[in-house]
Amino acid sequence: MTIEIILAASFFTLLGVAYVKGYDIVRQYSRDHLPQFYLIMATIRILLVATTFGLYVFFTDNREDTIRFAIIYIIMYGVMMVVTLKLRH
User: Fold this and answer.
1) Crossing angle, helix 63-88 and helix 2-29, to 10 degrees?
2) Which residue in 5, 17, 39, 61 has the fewest CB atoms around it within 10 Å?
């Protein structure tokens, strides 16, 4: 379970960094496109998170680990959303 937590934390860190850097680039070159950028990134993040979680559930046989991983994953997703919004808004 430890390796899954480390990989999930790395995954969310990469998603957060991609959002922050992308936000900076869009803000620098075209402030008018910030709402579209936010919606596109939110869609990409939701799809990636759902796909990653779905793959974990598909390949894991232990139900207890899956439930723990789901709780941790949801908490990490919430923390990533709060941190990225606080950094850029």
Assistant:
1) 20
2) 61
One-letter amino acid identity for 21?
A: K
Report how far apart, in Å, the C-alpha atoms of 55 and of each of 29, 49, 66 are: 37, 10, 11
83 exposed, middle or buried (CB, 10 Å; 0-12, 13-18, 19+)?
middle
With tokens 């990533």, the residue in question is 80
Two tokens, residue 28: 């620098």
Backbone angles phi, psi at 14, to 5 degrees: -65, -40
Q: Two tokens at 9?
A: 């934390």
Write down the H helix ranges in 1-89. 2-29, 34-59, 63-88
Using one digit for the tens of pLDDT, what is the confidence trace for 44-80?
988 998 898 888 888 888 888 888 888 888 898 888 8
Per residue in 14-49, pLDDT (tens digit) is 988 998 899 999 999 999 998 999 899 989 988 998
